[in-house]
Amino acid sequence: MNELLSVNSLAEFTHHKNITILCHNFPDADTIASGYALYSYFTLRTNAKVKLIYGGISPISKTNLQLMIKLLHIPIEHVTQDYNAQGLLVSVDCQYLSGNVLDITADEVLIIDHHRISRELKEGLASIDLPIYGLIKDNYGSCATLVYELLQKEHFNLSKYVSTALYYGLFMDTNEFSELRERADIQMRDELAIDDAIFTLIRNSNLTKEELIIVGSAFKELKIHETMAYIEAQECDPNMLGLMADILIMVENVSVAVVYTCLQSPSLSVDKCYKYSVRTCVRNIAAHDFAEKLVSPKDTNGKLINLGYAGGHRSKAGGSLDYQSFNLWCTNELKPYRSFSNYLCESFDEFLANKVIDLSDDFIIDKATGKVKSKIK
Question: Would you say residue 348 lies in a domain?
Answer without folding.
Answer: yes
